[in-house]
Amino acid sequence: MAGLKLRVEFSSVIRSQSLFPLTFRRTRDVKKGMNIEQDLAKITLQEKTLCFEQFDERTAWEIGSRLHAAAEKRGAAIAIDVTFCGYTVFSCALPGTSPNNANWVRRKRNTVLHFHRSSYGMGLQLEHDKTDLAGKFGLPLSDYAVHGGSFPIRVKATGVVGAITVSGLPQREDHKTVVDVLADYLRKPMSELALD
């Protein structure tokens, strides 16, 4: 039951003034009724579609600035990082973030750079396979995170050259924030790429 949370419903408690019977229901931190296979297929499409012809420090600045503007418009407290060719070329933290967000950025980015897949896609794949990073790959959770928010920078003629990462929102929203900005920048229709 990796990645699942249990929620206790106390409706019977109020009626009976007793702590029993309690009912338990599985919940996910993603939309109710989510289909992992559908999301994985859509994320794979995102990763194939959101590719750059070329990428450099100017591109990193533009993407980072667009993420910053989107977060400010929304009033979101997120940390933003764009890593290219092994070093950080854009980094900022909006008011309301903490050093913990920077640590989440580092761990999500490590996942993308290791697997060349989005951190959210990796997390869903591991949940689908009923395993985790430590069990399947022997990777320490102190250095890797499979929560949404980091996306590979893929250049068509080269491959993965870095990662674009945000942290501060629920993981599905972190992932969506990056995908929305990339789709707009690359002029790709979100109607084909959006998760349901």
How far apart lie the N and C ends? 23 Å
Uncertain spans: 1-33
- SS strand fraction: 15-25%
Mean pLDDT: 86
- The tally of domains stands at 1
Determine and state the CATH class: Alpha Beta
Provide an overview of this structure.
Strands 4-3-6-5 form a four-stranded antiparallel beta sheet. The protein has eight helices and six strands; from the N terminus they run βαβααββαααββαα. The longest helix has 18 residues, at about 55-75. It is about 45% helix and about 20% strand. The protein has helices at about 10-15, 35-50, 55-75, 100-115, 120-130, 135, 170-185, 190-195; strands at about 5-10, 25, 80-85, 85-95, 150-155, 160-165. It has one domain (about 35-195): Haem-degrading domain (Beta-Lactamase). It has about 200 residues and is α+β, with helices and mostly antiparallel strands. Mean pLDDT is about 85; it is low at about 1-35.
Could you list some keywords that capture this structure?
196 residues; alpha+beta; Beta-Lactamase; four-stranded antiparallel sheet; two-stranded antiparallel ribbon; 8 helices; 45% helix; globular
Topology:
Elements: E1 5-9, H1 11-16, E2 23-27, H2 36-49, H3 57-74, E3 79-84, E4 87-93, H4 99-115, H5 119-128, H6 133-137, E5 150-155, E6 159-167, H7 171-185, H8 190-193
Antiparallel strand pairs: 1-2, 3-4, 3-6, 5-6
What's the short story on this structure?
By secondary structure, the protein is α+β, with helices and mostly antiparallel strands. 45% of the residues lie in helices and 19% in strands.
